[in-house]
Amino acid sequence: MISLRAIAPSLTRVTIAAAVGAALHIGQGDSNLVDQTAVDFARAVMNQMEVDGEVISCEGAKDNAPAFLKREKVGTGIGPKLDFVIDPVDGTTATSKGGKDVISALACGPRGSLQILPDDGYYYKIATGPEAKGRITMDMPLEAIVQIISACKNKPAENLTVILLDRPRHEDILKRLRRLGVRIILIPDGDIAGVVAPCLPETGVDLLLGAGAGPEATIGATAVKCLGGNMFVKVYQDKNDRPNRLQRLRDEGVDVEKVYTQNDLAKGDTLVFAASGVTKGELIDGVKFTHEGATVNSICTRLPSGTIEKTMSYLRFKGHPVYEHLT
């Protein structure tokens, strides 16, 4: 039986490193530089960990952006056999433009515990907090979902907050939400923070809806499962799909009609989700540089305990094996 409790702080250090690397280039207009520095910093920390790890997926590879290699070995090779799904910068474009709501995030579990949805097109996602668990389904109309969450939280629909990516594909959803009178937060890039936010009451977010990428679904599902929430994910189809996409997904073992839940994408009860803020956002505040180094806000949650740890790290770059060259 693998226990991830002892290495959870190390996992947070990975996302901290990626966040610092990305934050060095906020607003400079170079997405590849954002990704490359975040990956380099995260890799340096991961390879210090006493684990036999593999990165089974890293967001960015399909766009030829800097990323971890698929099945890249990480860690010292001595220790528990672990799988990682990592998004060093969930919101690369937003970072390069100086936008909000960017985080670095990862999911970790024993070998074989994390299922990846191929990064080929989009997947429709619904995420809610523990209050609505078991009360909604993917096939319910949006209006019914809002009504049920309103009842579960004992507050009127106009006091609910729904978060979703600001994309043309969500125009119909936006129109329907506005008719319901709910508050809406549109995020520019990256939806992991949006998936996690409804599970944490202090964010004020009640529901995530919309279509996003596959690797992020697994990272988000891991967080939702650790936090006791509910998530649904299904292959999203639209007129912009690339030719033969559904067949490619079937060839990779995806059931294109199945509604995946957090229990399908993150199996078992030994899991860790960690994230650190790159820029200011709804879930976590961003990196702030100081004369000695930087401050970084992070969140880490794990099973089986369900522990949630929120930390602010004060980094001193001088003498640090990862950040020394920044001084």
Describe the structure concisely for a colleague.
The chain is α+β, with helices and mostly antiparallel strands. Helix content is 27%, strand content 27%.
Overview of this protein structure:
Helix 1 runs antiparallel to helix 2. The chain has nine helices and 14 strands. The chain is 27% helix and 27% strand. A hairpin with a 4-residue loop joins strand 13 and strand 14. The chain folds into two domains: 8-112 and 270-326, Fructose-1,6-Bisphosphatase, Chain A, domain 1 (2-Layer Sandwich); 123-265, 3-Layer(aba) Sandwich (D-Maltodextrin-Binding Protein, domain 2).
The main sheet comes to: 8 strands, mixed
Task: Return the CATH topology of the largest domain.
Answer: Fructose-1,6-Bisphosphatase, Chain A, domain 1
Q: Could you tell me the number of beta strands?
A: 14
Q: State the name of the first-level CATH class of the largest domain.
A: Alpha Beta
DSSP strand (E) fraction? 25-35%
Mean pLDDT: 94
**What's the order of the H and E elements?**
HHEEEHEEHEHEHEHEHEHEEEE
Please tell me the CATH architecture of the largest domain by its name: 2-Layer Sandwich
Show unreliable segments.
none
What does the radius of gyration come to?
Answer: 19 Å
H/I helix tally? 9
